[in-house]
Amino acid sequence: MVKPVLAVNFKAYYPHSFGENAYRLAKDAVRVWRETGVEVILAPPFTELKSVIEAVNGTGVKVFAQHADPVEPGAVTGFIPLEGLKNLGVHGVILNHSEHRLKISDINYLVKKARKLSIETLVCADTPETGAAVAVLGPDMVAVEPPELIGTGVSVSKAKPEVVTNSVDVIRRVNKDVAILTGAGITTGEDAYIAVKLGTIGVLVASGIVKAKDPYQVMKEMAEAMLKGLA
Ligand SMILES: O=C[C@H](O)COP(=O)(O)O
Question: Which residues of this protein are catalytic (predicted)?
Answer without folding.
Answer: 97, 145
